[in-house]
Amino acid sequence: MLSRWSFPIRALTRSMVFSSNMMREKREVGNRVTTSYRLVAVAASFFILCIFLSSGEAFAQAAPFPASFSPRDVTVYRSWDSTQTLRLRFELSLSTSPHVPSSKTASYLVAGSPLSPPRVRVAACHLYRVRGNEVVGETWEMPSNIPPQGGLTRINEVGLFRQYKVYSLTLNLVFTAQPLIPNANETWVVDFVELILDLGAPPLTGEDAEIAKEAFSSPALAELTDAVLLNADINSRYYYTTSTSTWEHVRSWATKIGKAARSNRLFKATFYRPGIYRVTREMVSSEGGTSATTPVSAEKWRVLSKGEEISAIPDPDAPESSLLLVVPEWDIDELGPACVWLDASGENEEHAPPRRSAPAAPSHEASSLGHRPVVMREYVAEELVEYQARIKPNSDVTRWYWKAIPPDSIGTFTVTLPSTFASDEPVSVSLYYAMSYPRQLLPRIEIFANGESVTTAPLTTVQGSVVVGVPPRSLHAGKNVIGVRSFYTDDSPEEKRDVLVQKFIFRWNQSPDVAPEGFFRLVGNEAADTVLAFPDSRKRLLVASCDPDSPWYSQLSSGESVQVPSILRGKKLFAVAPDEISSPPVLEHVSSQMFALLDPPTGSDYLVIAPSDFASALIPLAQRRIAQGFKPRVVSLEHVFDLFGYGWRSSEAIRQFLSYCFYGWPHPKLSYVLLVGEASEYRRDPALAPPKCQIDILPTCGSARRESVHGDHPYGCVAGTDPLPDVPLGRLSVASSEELTSAIAKLLRYEDSPVGEWATRGVFVCDDNEEFPRVAKEIVAAAGGPSLAIRLFEESSYPYVPNTRVYGKRRSWNATRELLSVLDGGVGFVTYFGHGGPNIWSHERLLHIMDLPKLREPSHLPFIACASCDNAWLDYPLPPVKASMGELFVKQERG
After folding, report:
1. How far apart are CA 41 and CA 875, in angstroms?
2. How far is C-alpha 137 from the geometric centre of its chain's CA atoms?
3. For residue 632, is it within any domain?
């Protein structure tokens, strides 16, 4: 199953093997090669090309790639004159019927020296002079106005592929000729050209070259690269053997936490919201670390975040037995849960005392109260309930929203303001929204507060925010009901759309005598120092800075004041009563096993990254790969996050680890990667997740804050910074050990099933738009072979009936039943061309996610390529696409 950017290892391996059969010493592109697997490779290549062309900025640097020539035009021959010199002959086979090729360029990839691009010279050539469709001359020498480099060919750097430099070689096939007859349109057309490429001096000699030769001699590498490059068998002296990264940050982090981990006194706290948290010795002991009989004073604990030690606050009431952690604000939707480390060993190689914030002593001088600033409060009210893929995420919102408001309807939202809410001025309320679908004329909204209409405002953009003022008398501390009414004032026939309310942000100036709770800012006072006091406070408050670069805290009781450093003016502070400080939601003991990832005794050519809970379910797959000659290794996903991401669950940590394995692990070289675990755009507290929401286990690459492609493709780009994948990579999108066991059993049944006549049957499934059958027919005509039984399955060949579930749409039950029957009958490959989504093929519902359980055949499974939009949306979080079609094709038990 090939889906978007993520596909299972077995299918990927087979597709690479199929492709490698097409590229030998004589490389023919066209009808000449008729192996039974050729059409599979072309179909997969077409699908991958569609991904490249639609992937936006992620692939902006890859052009020109792949080849842009017509598959019926060019045949390539090659030979090595020396280690450094490659001879290439390109033939257009025009001798019997010269014509202008369907494309004027042909593009290839060539491996070369990292020191300089290849140099080109022409050894031989034959060109026809063509006027219209008539040949009027020929030459065996390159015309003087066509230089070999820059005219006949163009060479551009593409990037690193595995560990050698790759260049694009673009061959121009047609040139403008000086006409023999005035005003005639004449061109030179290449019949054949023989080029000699000087690859430049290899960068490696001696021992380094032998290391490279050993590391890159595996057959798997030859199969992979042979399908991509013209000279995959380039001498090993051209390889890079080391990364430009020294991985110093990883080893430095391992050193900082190593002693605590080996002494069984390293802990990791996970947080879903900012604030101040208390960790006690009892909590540490209960997690299996420090023994209760040999306690280490909390005064000796060290706190670390993102690789560096940070300041903590001694517990004013029990400094020896507990410690207060300050967790500043962060973007949880983008970065996932926050992680703070606790070294409870009491040891440090630098013999420096643990970092602690120094307390600011309060004052009882009443005269200082005249300098009090304005206390500005901010409260964010939001719930992640529904998900809309059309929302364009930015720094303010993601694709989640709270509630949809239909036209001329009122949506109500319960907002619980802090118990200390009090203001004498209007409260600023920012409402963030998005339209359910773009519309030229937008509605107005009316805001209600606890049943009272307070204001109306127009929506001026399809997605954005609107700010209104609410009288302070309309709001109160505790539970409030905010109503939003959407109404249209135009008479346009354009369909009226829903307003998707995402969140509210309330901002107000707190009454100066009332102590705040939670976050607040000090604004409006330009004095050198700012005085903070709360005369009406009925309890002692701990006030602390949330800026990790400016640690500060103090304790205040009623009648006391304290000077706040001017550097903290405008920055967020946090106030809480000491007896109301919460514990971390997750505190876990961390062992030293993760350090085995740094210097393993042997490498692995088949690497599996999975949550530790899935390890036992992966044993049958690992045993099968061992029997096949691989050296598999199952790595804990948690260890990858802890060592390469400082405990944060980021895709960058996985990328860093894979690159480290590729460059730093010994032989055998990393050749295949399998990721195990579901992905989801919900990364917040699992306890607050919407019903049936998929929790993020192993994230995809992509940002939650901007429109970027989400997928696994970047994980395979381990060499260099280019978008060329260097390692075949797939994913089993499973949410539990039970799902994983079922998926592996299905995979092993497939590998054990005999390959019969069914494997030579293929189906090209086409949407009913005219262009899709045309493209499919062109591919069959260009690459089909007599040993393949190809069926063109056109949706338009079946009768339609109205779709009773979707107004104004139609569908074909007969087409769906026939397609399911074809799949159950056993086919070697299926390629779908058409419109689609995460849960569907075609607007007419040719195949829907609800149809997949009807599949029966468990062993004769096809290779599936889907040239469609979003059909394997890996991190879609909610039903009906909690698991996309691409994922279900792989992991459901049957079909």
Report:
1. 28
2. 55
3. no
Q: Where are the alpha helices (DSSP H) in 618-752?
A: 619-627, 637-644, 651-664, 737-752
Token pair listed for 102 = 């369907």
Distance CA 737, CA 678 (A): 12
Query: What three-state secondary structure class fits 125?
Result: strand
Residue 249 lies in a domain: no
How far is residue 239 from each of residues 110, 166, 229, measured CA to CA in Å?
13, 11, 14
Calculated CA dihedral for residues 756, 761, 763, 764, nearest 10 degrees: 130
Four-CA torsion 271, 277, 280, 282, nearest 10 degrees: -50
- Tell me the CATH number at 155: 2.60.40
**Comparing C-alpha atoms, which of 126, 119, 52 is closest to residue 867?**
52
> Would you say residue 77 lies in a domain?
no
Domain termination residue (choose one: 478, 494, 510): 510
* DSSP H or E run through 128: strand 119-131
Tell me how crowded residue 538 is: count the other CB atoms within 10 A of its CB. Answer: 9
Task: Show the domain range for 221.
Answer: 84-201+204-238
Cβ–Cβ < 8 Å for 200, 237: no
Do both 144 and 208 map to the same domain? yes
**How high is the pLDDT of residue 209?**
63
| Nearest CA among 602, 608, 610, 606 for reference residue 628 | 606
Running along the chain, 895 residues long, what does each successive block of 10 average in pLDDT?
A: 27 26 29 30 34 29 30 75 92 61 78 89 91 87 83 87 84 87 87 93 70 50 45 80 78 94 94 96 76 70 95 92 95 96 82 88 62 84 93 91 96 95 93 92 96 95 94 95 95 91 95 82 69 74 90 87 86 92 95 94 96 97 96 97 97 95 89 96 94 94 89 91 87 95 93 88 92 88 73 93 76 92 90 93 92 84 90 89 89 81
Can you give the CATH number for the domain in which 408 is found? 2.60.120.260
Q: What is the pLDDT of residue 291?
A: 46
Q: Are residues 496 and 519 in the same domain?
A: no
CB under 8 Å to 589, separation ≥6 — which residues? 264, 266, 267, 287, 288, 289
Asked if residue 443 and residue 538 are part of one domain, the reply reads no
For the four alpha carbons of 739, 743, 749 and 752, in that order, the dihedral sign comes to negative
- Quick one: tokens of 759? 């494997």
Residue 658 lies in a domain: no
